[in-house]
Specification:
- With 473 residues, the chain is mostly helical.
- The protein has 18 helices and no strands.
Length: 473
């Protein structure tokens, strides 16, 4: 019998052809490749190149598959995106910034061309102005989703400037209503919605900050416009003052028309009225809309009547005229800083804090105010608190919405807000008239509805994340 060899000896005595066949079967060697070519270096090169090529292919494939609405596809910065914010800044400067100076016109009309009318009657002009600017939301929001911002912005440029030029020629109540209360704000509405919807398509992580920077334009407009009105009316008259303002607005809108655009490709769809109603079936959206409606109901009362209440408490007319600019100057910080913080600790959290803060200020500071200092402090603090609402409200809507429907959803929100904007100040004026010039009832009304609105923001937060306090939302 032949001796049994150790198992390892078969490897050493294996025929080279047999070894090559086994290598080919195991995949270590190509049929066309000689054994000598399979060096360690070759093997290492192949194994290192393969994952690289595969990773590059996967990355390209992922980029191709990204939807424009995917969070990863938002630029969240860069020259093009920030130029859009610049255009939005100009848009809000001339639209919402113009609305922010309505208190100056209320005071001027009561002592000037419309002095024969009551405060409540005159208050319909600025209220109608605010109403017309917001009621266009569903129309301009749908047009934005279908065709983009270009045509909307051109339409708004013409009617806003034309309305102010016609206001410069007005002498009777109905003429002020038609020119300043309807025509000009209809154009401002188109400008406002083109900006609000465009900026949201470029930012995701820094959306509240972008909205805040854009909305600070309305605050700066609210500082500059009242001072210009106060200074120029005495020097060049009301007519040329309005024309000068209209030309300045036209120049800023040229910049806006050159820089504002949407990142998304327009997708024309037929107008279906119910698509403006469908979002209200979502509880978070419904709570945000109700909260905004009630808060807005009272928010513009201080803007409209703070000058009159300060003058009633012996503040000089010259100093009282600066309360609106002070209010709007601090709202610049109120529109940027809370947005920056909201992107980091939660936008709903910041909205709740700032809205409650604004409502409490009316009770704690404006209601008992006597003398110059309390009015100045109230104007500064209220400007900061209320300014946050203007920039945070559209950021909340964007957060709980499909970005492709941002135009329609913003339109639904602001169309509902237009009702509170239309009726809030006239109700305040009626309360003032009924109380024979006592501002207390009007101030309490404003505070109560703003507190109620703040509570609805709390409800919207609870619906989404429960009662846990330390949650970013």
């Amino acid at each position: 019998m032949a001796p049994i060899e150790p198992s390892g000896s078969s490897v050493s005595t294996m025929d080279p052809a047999t070894a090559k066949e086994k290598d080919m079967e195991s995949g270590r060697l190509s049929p066309m490749e000689p054994i000598s070519s399979r060096t360690d270096a070759n093997i290492m090169n192949e194994t290192s190149e393969e994952p690289e090529a595969r990773a590059e292919f996967d990355e390209k494939d992922t980029v191709k598959k990204l939807s424009p609405t995917d969070p990863a596809s938002f630029p969240d910065g860069g020259l093009e995106a920030w130029l859009v914010v610049l255009g939005g800044f100009c848009c809000l400067f001339v639209s919402f910034g113009w609305i922010n100076c309505i208190g100056v016109f209320q005071a001027y009309y009561e002592t000037g061309p419309l002095k024969q009318y009551s405060s409540s009657t005159i208050a319909w002009i600025p209220s109608l102005e605010t109403f017309m600017m917001f009621i266009g939301g569903p129309i301009f929001g749908k047009l934005f989703d279908n065709y983009g911002p270009r045509g909307i912005l051109l339409f708004g440029t013409f009617f806003h400037v034309f309305g102010l030029m016609m206001t410069s020629l007005a002498t009777k109540y109905y003429q002020f209503v038609l020119a300043q209360g309807i025509c000009s704000p209809m154009g401002a509405s188109a400008i406002f919605y083109a900006a609000m919807s465009s900026v949201g398509t470029w930012f995701f992580r820094n959306r509240a900050l972008a909205y805040g920077v854009m909305a600070s334009g309305s605050s700066l407009g609210g500082v500059i416009f009242p001072i210009m009105v106060e200074r120029l009316i005495g020097r060049i008259g009301f007519g040329w003052t309005m024309r000068a303002l209209a030309f300045m607005i036209l120049g800023l809108l040229v910049v806006a028309n050159l820089t504002l655009k949407s990142r998304l490709t327009p997708q024309p769809k037929p107008l279906i009225f119910m698509e403006f109603i469908y979002p209200l079936r979502e509880i978070p959206f419904l709570m945000v809309v109700f909260g905004s409606f009630l808060f807005f109901f009272g928010m513009f009362i201080p803007f409209t009547f703070i000058i009159l209440s300060a003058e009633a408490n012996k503040m000089s007319t010259g100093l009282a005229g600066y309360l609106i600019p002070i209010l709007n100057a601090t709202s610049i910080f109120g529109r940027v800083i809370p947005g920056f913080i909201g992107d980091r600790i939660g936008r709903f959290n910041v909205m709740i804090i700032t809205t409650y803060f604004s409502a409490i200020l009316i009770i704690a500071l404006w209601l008992p105010a006597r003398g110059n200092v309390p009015f100045i402090i109230f104007a500064a603090l209220f400007g900061f608190g209320s300014g946050a609402f203007v920039s945070m409200a559209p950021a909340l809507i964007a957060q709980i919405s499909d970005i492709r429907q941002i135009g329609v959803r913003n339109g639904t929100l602001f169309a509902i807000l237009s009702i509170s904007a239309l009726t809030g100040s006239p109700i305040g004026g009626a309360l003032l008239t009924r109380a024979h010039g006592d501002f207390k009832d009007m101030q309490i009304f404003a505070a109560v509805v703003m507190l109620a609105g703040s509570t609805f923001f709390v409800a919207a937060r609870v619906v989404q994340k429960g009662f846990s306090v330390m949650v970013k939302i």
